[in-house]
């Protein structure tokens, strides 16, 4: 790699941080009830009955309106407004998370079943009825709830909407129960016929495994059918646990016993056994009681920790985290500096950088942190044009180690982010690829000769990973 016209031995570590936490398998659920043309859109009116099922429908409606599953399911920290409103028990909160994640993950397949039963697109249903039918289909088909529970779904449809919606839900769900008993639930055709085009195979597999066709087609071309099916099944598994970084505490028997006494099942991380635990059970409880924040612990995937492990911060290092917000990796890197050295955290997002600053103060790490709100590309351009007028980088080639954790498609973490598959499009990939290339070019200017640049994504797409490193010297 050339830096400022000088040949350099800068090392590049490419790292797609996904596939670290193993997960347990599962399958799916569904909905229907065509809205009459011209009928007024009704919105769910919340009355009484603070059940997990009702909370799940409300949260599914929020996801439909654009909220992230992680935020409505409470995994982003604390219970969501809706679950707080209903004062759900920890057990119910866990159930809501399971129901919401499952319905979103299996949405395409659920909709296929519902549309087969109703003969109409789910988009013609009022949103509360659509989400209720998805939920009920998920519970019946995937979770295997007994068929008498259908009467509870029907009551909920009446409460949320009107008696007609209840009658409609009853008809659809009783029909589904009958087909289940006859082992005749509608399924997409098997994609074996040699006459099928790639697009047609992608459609059938996409319905059966509930992924967008464009993603399936992309992977069929790259991996072939068997590996693609393995990948889709992996994406449909629920995470078997959640990583929690406990550093600067150390994972030892005493810590595990303290967690167990609070009803939390956790074990040391396979990959970072000193600093991370994997919580199998009880995360909602820790979040709801504020116990993580109180101890300086943070929900953080082990794979994110491994990126910092690759960066290998040593006391005295001068580090740059180019895309630092919201700051999970920066906080871990600060801990590894152990009070000696400096980390400059840059990001375009000022608000999210402030959260990092606050957390660093709370954890007693503020002395090693500088933050700088900037577009990395503009900043490097300005730096190349002349000496900096304000805070931030003082020169090119200034940093021992640079972390570039770029914005990416997230296609390597679909099992952990149930809604992401429906949010992404091929156009996103093209735009991200260009942005990543520009950021990589800029970040490379800032590493001292002989220093280290770690580039990381949560994607498995070569365009976002190894193809970006062309022309750089791999480790
Ligand atoms: C994957 S996230 C980084 C996550 C972060 N490293 C962490 O561990 O919490 C990507 C970040 O890149 C930032 N970003 C996007 N474009 C940027 C740019 N041109 N310059 C600097 N930061 C940028 C986004 O605001 C976002 O916070």
TrEMBL record:
Coiled-coil positions: none
Record key words, sorted: Methyltransferase, RNA-binding, S-adenosyl-L-methionine, Transferase
Listed CDD domains: AdoMet_MTases
Keyword RNA-binding: yes
Positions contributing to S-adenosyl-L-methionine binding: 323-329, 347, 375, 405
InterPro entries membership: MeTrfase_RsmB-F_NOP2_cat (IPR049560), MeTrfase_RsmB-F_NOP2_dom (IPR001678), NusB-like_sf (IPR035926), NusB_RsmB_TIM44 (IPR006027), RCMT (IPR023267), RsmB-like_ferredoxin (IPR054728), RsmB/NOL1/NOP2-like_CS (IPR018314), SAM-dependent_MTases_sf (IPR029063)
UniProt domain SAM-dependent MTase RsmB/NOP-type: residue ranges: 232-475
Domain of life: Eukaryota
Protein's name according to its UniProt entry: SAM-dependent MTase RsmB/NOP-type domain-containing protein
Organism: [Myrmecia] bisecta
